[in-house]
Each structure stands twice: as C-alpha cells, then as structure tokens.
C-alpha cells in the first residue's frame, strides 16, 4: 500500500549517464543523502533521502542513447490494468509491466502526444515518503501541444478530470482526482518546436528559489528560465550538469 492514493504522482527519478555526479550535485543542492541499492542488477540505483525519508531516485539510463531525464511516476493498485487502459486510449506501452525486485511493479508508457510517464504499484517501496516541503517533490506538470487530446487520454487512464485555471493562471489546467488537484497541464512556450514531443516536468520545493538557482549554477548546472513569480508561487527551470531538466518552486 502506497503513501499516496492511486492516480496520484508518487515518485520521481533521474536517468543519467553520470550517476556519480548526480550523487554530488543534488545532495549539495537540496541537502539530500544517498542510499545505493545493494543488488548488482540495480546498476547503482540511488535513493535520495531527506531527513531519512525517500524523496527521489537516480539510476543509469535504460539505453545508452537515452537523454538525461527526470521521470514522473503515478501510483496505481494494478500496473497491468493501467497498461491495458493506455493502449485502449491510444497511448504506447514503452516498457511493459515488470517487478522491480520486491520493491514494486512498474510500467512506462507515452501518451498520444509523446509525453512519457511511469506507473508504480508499490510492494515494499511505497514511493516518495514526503511531499510538498523544501527538498521534496512538490508539483508535477504535463507540457503538451495537445491539451484536448491529453484531457481525453488521462481521464480514460487515471480517471482525471480537467479543472481549467484552478490557480487563476491562463492556459493552465489542473488534473482533478475526486476533490483533489493532483497535477497540472500547460501549453508549451511560444518557441516550442512544432515536432517536439510533450513531456512531464517535476518541481522540487525550496525555501528560496533565487538562492537555489544561483546554487545550481555554482554547482555546474544551468538556469534555463530565470526565477519568476507565477500564481502557484516563485519558480525557475534548471538543468543539472548532464542536461536533465527540473524545476524548483516556493509557494506564495
């Protein structure tokens, strides 16, 4: 049984070609500690902990040519059932459901616009153990050029209902599951290439966005979008030293 309900983002992890540098960069940025999985087959997969509680992970890329990327996982009670829904709704099953040791069962799929997302059916590892505080995942958002198609797809797969402009931000949609907004969706920026796939983005909470951006740059990362104020708070888009995109945010 997971800590978050089924249909809710529950985990994020990084695929990177330089795992050693990720173990340096992110702990220095967020104050995390790392715990390396003992199984040789795990390839050095590392749990990042905040005050001893799991907040994120990092591991080697699944294939050598994979670009460095943070992935979003949605909690589920049945990964195989979700995989069937994905295909029926017009998505693509990228990695069929499989067991991750005794930790859980997962699958990877892409929506019709190309955004890749994973599902996590917990066993001994519930996913993230703390959310919405500095140093932990605080928000996830789909960036897509086809919001109408996404509304149909994610309702069929997870039962999400679109809630347009839940924070008063034009062009922004909240994904509602029951009474809760569990994630968001927005259109890409104006310079988004027309043939680029959609993607899921992850936001980590910080106490001071401007200080975190400066710290990331000093550690070898890059500021992709300078800190700015939005209805949900103050945020910035960053890249780590290997180029993986992530965001940091401070609520208002």
**What's the end-to-end separation, in Å?**
32 Å
Decide which structural class fits the backbone.
alpha+beta
Helix share, percent? 10-25%
SSE run? EHEEEEHEEEEHEEEEHEEE
Q: Shape from CA axes?
A: globular
Major sheet description: 8 strands, mixed
Properties at a glance:
globular, 252 residues, 8-stranded mixed beta sheet, single chain, 4 helices, 16 strands, 2,3-Dihydroxybiphenyl 1,2-Dioxygenase, domain 1, alpha+beta
Summarize this entry quickly.
Helix content is 17%, strand content 42%.
How would you describe what is shown here?
- This protein is of the alpha+beta class and 252 residues long.
- It has a domain at 137-250: 2,3-Dihydroxybiphenyl 1,2-Dioxygenase, domain 1 (Roll), CATH 3.10.180.10.
- The protein contains four helices and 16 strands.
- The chain has helices at residues 19-30, 79-88, 147-158, 209-218, and strands spanning 9-15, 33-36, 46-50, 53-59, 69-75, 92-100, 104-110, 116-122, 137-143, 161-164, 172-177, 180-186, 199-205, 222-230, 233-239, 245-250.
- The strands form two sheets. It has an eight-stranded mixed sheet with strand order 2-3-4-1-5-8-7-6, with helices on one face. It has an eight-stranded mixed sheet with strand order 10-11-12-9-13-16-15-14, covered by helices on one side.
- The mean pLDDT is 93.
- This is Hydroxylase.
- Residues 8-122, 136-251 form the VOC domain.
- InterPro entries: Anthracycline_SecMetBiosynth, Glyas_Bleomycin-R_OHBP_Dase, Glyas_Fos-R_dOase_dom, VOC_core.
């Amino acid at each position: 049984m997971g800590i978050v309900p089924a249909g809710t983002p529950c985990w994020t992890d990084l695929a990177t070609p330089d795992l050693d540098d990720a173990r340096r960069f992110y702990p220095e940025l967020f104050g995390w500690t790392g715990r390396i999985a003992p199984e040789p087959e795990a390839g050095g997969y590392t749990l990042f902990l905040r005050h001893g509680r799991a907040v994120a992970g990092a591991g080697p890329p699944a294939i050598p040519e994979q670009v460095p990327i943070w992935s979003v996982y949605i909690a589920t009670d049945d990964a195989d059932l979700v995989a069937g829904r994905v295909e029926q709704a017009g998505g693509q099953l990228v990695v069929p459901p499989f067991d991750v040791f005794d930790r859980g069962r997962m699958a990877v799929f892409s929506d019709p616009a190309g955004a890749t997302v994973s599902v996590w059916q917990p066993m001994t590892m519930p996913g993230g153990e703390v959310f919405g505080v500095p140093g932990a995942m605080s928000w996830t958002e789909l960036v897509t050029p086809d919001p109408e198609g996404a509304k149909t797809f994610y309702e069929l797969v997870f039962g999400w209902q679109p809630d347009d402009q839940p924070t008063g931000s034009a062009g922004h949609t909240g994904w509602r599951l029951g009474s809760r907004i569990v994630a968001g969706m927005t259109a890409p920026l104006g310079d988004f290439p027309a043939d680029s796939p959609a993607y899921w983005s992850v936001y980590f909470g910080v106490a001071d966005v401007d200080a975190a951006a400066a710290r990331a740059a000093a550690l070898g990362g890059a500021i992709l979008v300078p800190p700015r104020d939005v209805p949900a708070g103050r945020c910035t888009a960053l890249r780590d030293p290997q180029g993986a995109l992530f965001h940091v945010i401070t609520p208002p």
